[in-house]
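B., you asked whether I could sanity-check this one before it goes into the benchmark set. Here's the sequence:
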Amino acid sequence: MFQSLQYASVFLAFSSFAVAAETGRRAKCTVKVVRKPWDMLTSKERSAYIDAELCLMAAPSQLNIPGTETRWDDLHWNHIVQANFIHDVGQFLPWHRYYIAIHGDLLRNECGYTGPLPYWDETADSALPSLESASIFQPDAFGGNGVGSGPQKYIADGPFANSTLHLKRLGVAPADYKIYRDLNARTLIGGAQATIDACFQISTYTAAWECWAGLPHSSGHGATGGLMVDVVLSPGDPVFYLHHGWLDAMWWKWQSLDLPNRLKDMGGRNIPRESYVGNIGLPLPGPEWTNHDGDDGSVTTLNHVLYMSDMYPNVTVADVMDVRGDVVCAEYFYNDSFTFTMSRIVDGIIVFDTIIS
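And here's what the prediction gave me:
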């Protein structure tokens, strides 16, 4: 019975799918949201960010999906319901870019957070012999490693130790559980400079997204372990948003190496491989997804619709290609010497040359 209610909620949402894709979220970007590594935030900013996350975990759900109780559940549901459609495909990076932008919007608009949006500088932490010493896994940040001898080692310290999650995979009745972790510094090698440099050497998105979705993406998930290893449920751990913030920062850095060409460079399959979804225990997406994706064929295009489960208006891939644009409205800061230098105007568009030293 519960499974039927969950799937009915999904199907009903598609009645507004195409309309929402047309309207989009396009308020004028006037003040860009600063995004920077967690280590660059002041102690006051860190505390305010943690408080805002706890606010989302306590605020009542607005989706009215069976099993959702909080706004955190609403975000979680958005990822759960389409996990077999947003991974192993060309929309992987654009979809997650919009997803973390919505998370940031909720922090600001519903929980009053006014500081920078942090991301996890995995490249810096990849050199650590143990992640227990990483700043994000301290008691005054996101808490440390899981404890216990069972398969799910629940975190026992930090502000999220007592946070309760509710949603499981589709078809599984909701049940209260805690955030669990199993830190593994060796896995963070996927975020090392040598690893991401290989992705920077690729010149086309069709090949580059596969690189970013490989070791760099798996690094933060695997290194955090526990809940983060579950492709479907991983956004239950707030570290998820710092990890994907870092991945998006790397994609934006790659894009910036050849602006404006890479603002229009999109590709990749729009249906995941059967072997991939099978490995994560999910079926291939059905026509209720693929008939509404906005592509003309089997390749992801700029017209591809990024579905947001009625939390926010759907937008297209084209709408999020530029992080400085009206949808994402952000500006990245990095720990290294990566800089933008305005160089020229081409066809009325400001073009930036990038320098990495």
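One thing to flag: Residues 1-5, 11-23, 337-357 have pLDDT under 50 and may be disordered. Otherwise nothing jumped out at me.
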